[in-house]
Amino acid sequence: MTDISPKERLARVLDRETADRPPVICPGGMMNAAVVDVMKKGGHTLPEAHHDDRMMASLAEDVNEFTGFENYGLPFCMTVEAEVLGSAINFGTLGCEPKIREERYASAGSVERLNIRTALESGRVGTVTRAVHYLAGKHGDIPVIGNLTGPVSTAASIVEPMTFLKGLIKDRDNSARLLDYVTDFLIAYGCALIESGASFISIADPTATGEIMGPASFKKYAVPCLNRLVGALNEAGARVIVHICGDIRTVRQYIPEIRSQAISTDAVVNLKKLKDDYPQLVTMGNVSTYALEFQTPENIVEQTGRLVRESVDIVAPACGLSTSSPIENIRAMTKTVKESRVLTS
């Protein structure tokens, strides 16, 4: 097979078509590779790049160039949605990612539904969409991945998290209305990213796990919201990846019900076993982020090579990278995949 572009390779794998080897990507958002080594090498730094579209695009280019990941992934945090919906944000430092400083609402019942069209004109939505537009126009062969924080995690970012999670059991009507509202907003934001040039969307929903929600609430709330979001983004023209954090044993039976084009998992999940049990899944992952931060390049080569031999469809970090992860380890991961020539389908 002749060489194909990174964008075509990722599209083929997500469409279950033959490719020359697995893509190796770091989608952005929760799972981004804007590590301190990259920022020092390229000179485009956070937190400034969270607020400047051209600097955000340049940092994405630095990540692609210095790590070897075969994509651009924006933004570099999980707080764009919560900021627009009213929560206060701490934008972090060079080595510390943004986080929620204070949730906007005390309970699901007190949430005020904003006009979504107006909301999309606030916060950093414009910064992200302009950066996506710039990258998509400049680099047609490299996939631009827009990132969304999933519905459950966004809801838990605008309502005090423990109150929100208890409300899934004790205040079901208001919880359902909140999740509907948040999903409507995410559909609109995701479509704005697609209209700007993102051909792929990655959704990370770290609060939507069996360990945090329990399997009953995962099935009742997380799966339907994710599927409504995925369906709308597919209809708008993007392929979609969903990342589920943590140990999925209690919700394993529900994973095939998620209608994304790929499922990404944490390092604790045996992706080979998941793929053996559910061969219809396109799998993504799951090089340990602990290993990427603390182990040697030789260890990373061994772990990455095992995933390729086990026919994991897309190789990626297992979760959010530490900003202190050394660039040598990341390059060991991407180089190992690029030197493989395994036909995937």
Would you mind describing this structure in some detail?
With 345 residues, the chain is an alpha/beta fold. It is 46% helix and 12% strand. Helix 8 (161-170) crosses helix 9 and helix 9 runs parallel beside helix 11. The radius of gyration is 19 Å and the shape is globular. The two termini are 13 Å apart.
Order of helices and strands: HHHEHEEHHEHHHEHHEEHEHHEH
- Mean pLDDT across every amino acid position: 96
Strand content: 5-15%
- What percent of the residues sit in helical stretches (DSSP H or I)? 40-55%
- Main sheet attributes: strand count, strand direction, barrel closure: 7 strands, parallel
Unreliable stretches (pLDDT < 50, length at least 5) are: none
Distance between the termini: 13 Å
How many E strands? 9
Strand order of the largest sheet: 1-4-5-6-7-8-9
| Class by alpha and beta content | alpha/beta
Instruction: Count every helix, treating DSSP H or I runs of 4 or more residues as helices.
Output: 15
The coarse silhouette is globular
Rg over CA atoms, rounded to whole Å, is: 19 Å
